[in-house]
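Tokens in:
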């Protein structure tokens, strides 16, 4: 009976870790469960003022559960400072508008549009949109005279004083969110699969590793917050690369018969090896990026491989291998009109269909 209970507990622990990689959600919940009651207790004992207590509790709730900025410490600190300033302005404006219904509705519509629209442009704004909007929703929903503004701001400031240090130093999110590490592992696994195909070896083991890596990558990407549409920055580049790596993995897995037919031409084998090299160097470049940024933040560097410049060279070699493969294909199977086309034209057509070049700037 005890063994069965232990087995059930182990299975549940595995489920939690699969659905919550790195236990990010668990840590955020525990952090909020500790900090919110403490901040509320301090507000209650210090003032006994209901508006002060209310804004301390709801401010801590918003800061600890509705937002968790990523990036380096300085980046996160700037994001929280900006949010603190915007929240202060919102509390003042919302309180002034709260006694008039028409003005409250209009102000809420303008504030919501401004925050959500700016979230389309800035990933950081998108990550904190819900928390920022709460600093407007609460004061505008509870009608109060302008004389309550100091009490409301005092509660907000106390919430900031407790919540920001807790978010920055108590179980902080790693700046890379583990997603880049899994991207590197997945790219490296796909490269090993392609190498096995190019060498004509049985790839059952490599295929299993690719499937496991893609499953982990999908779980990590789905457990996080996707960047907003139209946003710029590293978060968008990583999100694009997740989709592209999954697409590559889907197309890289072939059966033995299919691989034998597809890789019969030497040019196709060379193209496959070039693609494997690019994937391996992509993984190494991500590792280099993580090690460089991690060392700047006091993290222990992960073993690194080659640099980004070598990846650029490998991409040029991949273009050459692809051109040779296309030229060989049209030499043997193309019609007269096809043969009259230049290799550059063929590459342009293929590039428009595959849309490969569009993602190179977002590799890291």
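Residues out:
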């Amino acid at each position: 009976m005890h063994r069965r209970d232990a087995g059930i507990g182990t299975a549940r622990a595995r489920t939690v870790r699969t659905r919550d990689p790195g236990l990010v959600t668990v840590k955020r919940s525990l952090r909020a469960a500790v900090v919110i009651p403490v901040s509320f207790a301090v507000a209650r004992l210090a003032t006994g003022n209901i508006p002060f207590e209310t804004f301390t509790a709801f401010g801590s709730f918003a800061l600890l559960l509705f937002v968790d900025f990523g990036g380096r410490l300085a980046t996160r600190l700037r994001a929280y400072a900006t949010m603190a300033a915007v929240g202060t302005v919102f509390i003042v404006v919302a309180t002034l508008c709260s006694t008039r219904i028409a003005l409250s509705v209009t102000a809420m519509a303008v504030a919501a549009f401004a925050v959500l629209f700016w979230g389309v442009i800035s990933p950081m704004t998108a990550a904190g949109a819900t928390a920022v909007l709460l600093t407007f929703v609460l004061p505008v929903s509870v009608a109060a005279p302008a004389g309550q503004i100091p009490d409301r701001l005092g509660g907000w400031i106390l919430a900031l004083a407790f919540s920001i240090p807790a978010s920055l130093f108590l179980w902080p999110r790693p700046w890379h969110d583990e997603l880049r590490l899994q991207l590197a592992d997945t790219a490296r696994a796909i490269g090993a699969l392609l190498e096995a195909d190019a060498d004509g070896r049985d790839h059952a083991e490599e295929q299993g590793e690719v499937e496991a890596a893609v499953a982990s990558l999908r779980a990590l990407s789905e457990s996080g917050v996707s960047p907003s549409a139209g946003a710029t920055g590293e978060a968008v580049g990583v999100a694009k690369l997740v989709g592209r790596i999954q697409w590559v993995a889907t197309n890289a897995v072939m059966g033995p018969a299919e691989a034998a037919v597809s890789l019969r031409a030497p040019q196709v084998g060379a193209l496959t090896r070039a693609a494997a090299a690019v994937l391996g160097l992509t993984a190494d470049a991500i590792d280099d990026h993580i090690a460089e940024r991690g060392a700047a933040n006091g993290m222990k560097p992960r073993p690194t491989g080659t640099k980004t410049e070598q990846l650029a060279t490998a991409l040029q070699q991949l273009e050459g291998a692809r051109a040779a493969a296309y030229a060989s294909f049209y030499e043997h199977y193309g019609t007269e009109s096809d043969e009259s086309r230049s290799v550059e034209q063929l590459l342009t057509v293929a590039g428009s269909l595959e849309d490969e070049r569009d993602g190179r700037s977002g590799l890291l």
